[in-house]
């Protein structure tokens, strides 16, 4: 059936609310407004105000309340409009959600899912466009996932809700309107492994979230020139499925990482470091990285486009690696 | 309040006081390390608030929480063993003095981020309300938290959703070394809480009887479905903020004035005057507390150090579906 990333996410929310009465959705404008990106449209009407809760503009309070409600036996889904806004709740995410199990010597757990929009590409400028999931992937105690496909948008939420630990789910804002085919019986998917989205022999392209499309586009263009690139979608950013990446590098001997985060201290740096640590002698060329330019994301289209990883940049990086 | 209840309050305060006095010695002996914040002077609050809660009620606390933990009934040996970093500590040596936990007693921790526990309390109360449980969550925090954004977000949310939270502000007039009047434009904290549309009133936090009565009144109102309440418990910390504090920010005379209101001698004298307590009864309390303390120290000393092989345990659940 044809659907969109947004509809797939909504279907996942609907399934979760229907299947488990401990599940509720809470966040800014998730109810009457239908979600600031329309993901939760109709859920208030379907499940009522006790399951779909509009909150004040109080990110720290409602994210922390989600943590407390999880401690109290519920299975909250908290929506934060964008990852930039999540910084207002960083104390709760870092100092409570990620640490309570450890600080309590294993007595407590925080089975909470926090959904938020990440990424650029919509001319929303520097306070709505950043890709900060790499920061969160730095933090022990959290799981971080990034659905890049319709199947993952549909299937990651339920698995995340079953997890006994906090899961942050990053929805790329430029994907909401992407449409495609989804199996009518599409359901929960694992949140532990990376996936090979396009097998190839000549180079390994590692991407996640919004950059998977960029990598696939680049791979398509390279194929026309006889370069066969493998595209890996990380899917889960913490804990990383490094084995899938390394196994691919051992086959292709070249690694190009595509990351919408900034290069410095990024997930791309982590992937590169793992390759250097565990697959250095399998590499036939230096690791290449295609990242966002180190500027706050600008508004004007030509500036924003130039700041982000583009398929052209990826093609050029792969060519350098295989030359 | 009857004799038995007053004696219970006195015993609890003495228990907390003697525990912490011994903790200072153990700190000097390097048995306890890290930050350790003493509650000495503020015992009337813990002795009054915690026992006034009912079975199943939840508690969220701060990094100055030895007294709260003891008054809630967490065994003294589990608290002390935690400060020793031992396996029999109530957080298995991962938390220390600032992060005592007891899931079974619904004690959701010492939180060492000022104001950081308030959102948890709101969420615990939300969960209880959603599950139709007539339970209250007590959230203890200091006057410093009132300056944090989280305080205002949480009072608003709890009042808006009429959640069963008892906000207990232990106003000891200092946020670490910064006096309340130097940090907050309106120092009437109950007044500020009341602006969120919840009952809020100041309480003499040096009087455990007054604290008990205020807590009972608030808990009854909350359990009856009237929404959250706020108590401003005016109290004072006699000792340094933590173990390293030259106390340059306050006058010795001010400390001395507050010491005149020390809740332990105050209640002792009052009970003596009313013929409710004699030397023998007081000595019995002291000796029972000493016995408990000696047993706690022995248990902490005997506890195995939490093994290094288990360093990375409890980061994620050990079993996943």
UniProtKB/TrEMBL annotation, chain A:
Keywords: Oxidoreductase, Pyruvate, Thiamine pyrophosphate. It comes from the Bacteria. InterPro entries: THDP-binding (IPR029061), Transketo_C/PFOR_II (IPR009014), Transketolase-like_Pyr-bd (IPR005475), Transketolase_C (IPR033248). Coiled coil: none annotated. The keyword DNA repair does not apply. SUPFAM superfamilies: Thiamin diphosphate-binding fold (THDP-binding), TK C-terminal domain-like. Its cofactor is thiamine diphosphate. One of its GO terms (molecular function) is magnesium ion binding. Residues 3-178 form the Transketolase-like pyrimidine-binding domain. PANTHER family: PYRUVATE DEHYDROGENASE E1 COMPONENT BETA SUBUNIT (PTHR43257), PYRUVATE DEHYDROGENASE E1 COMPONENT SUBUNIT BETA (PTHR43257:SF2). NCBIfam families: PRK09212.1 (NF006667). This is Pyruvate dehydrogenase. It comes from Prauserella flavalba.
